Amino acid sequence: MRCYWDEEDTWFYFEVDVDGWVIRQVELAGPELTPITAASLAERQRARDEGHLDECDSRFGTTAELPVSEWEGHDPEQLTAEEFEEVWGPARRRIEARPD
Question: What is the pTM for the complete model shown?
Fold first, then answer.
C-alpha cells in the first residue's frame, strides 16, 4: 500500500503482513522522490539482537510501530507485491550507496 503526506511532500510505501503490521517501509521525499527510508522489520530485529539497532535505524530508518488497522486519517492505496518491489529495490540501493 502507499499513501501521500502532503505536509511533508512524502510518499510512504508499506508491505504489511496478514495482521496489518508493517514488515517493510519506504519513504520518498520531495519532487525528486529521494529515498529517506527503506526499512525492514526483520532486518531491524536482527540488528537489535546483534546489538547494532541504532546503526541500522540511522542508515535505513524504521518501520511503523502500529498495525495499519490502528492508523487514523490514512486512506492508503493498495499496491501489488510487484509494485512495492519496484519502489523497494531502487530506494534500498540508493540508501546503501550513500557514504556512511
Answer: 0.91
Cell digits of residue 37: 527510508
Residue 72, pLDDT above cutoff 90? no
Contact 26, 13 (CB under 8 A): yes
Give residue 15's pLDDT.
95
The domain spans of the chain are: 2-86
The pLDDT score that the predictor gives to residue 38 is 97
Q: Which alpha helices (DSSP H) does 1-100 contain, by range?
A: 41-50, 53-60, 81-97
How many CB atoms sit inside 10 A of residue 40's CB?
Answer: 20
Longest dimension (CA), the chain: 37
Higher pLDDT, 66 or 14: 14
Close Cβ partners of 17 (under 8 Å, ≥ 6 residues apart) = 23
Do the Cβ atoms of 22 and 29 come closer than 8 Å?
no
| Residue whose entry in the numeric block shows the C-alpha cell 546483534 | 50
What distance in Å separates the CA atoms of residue 79 and residue 95, rounded to the nearest whole number?
Answer: 22
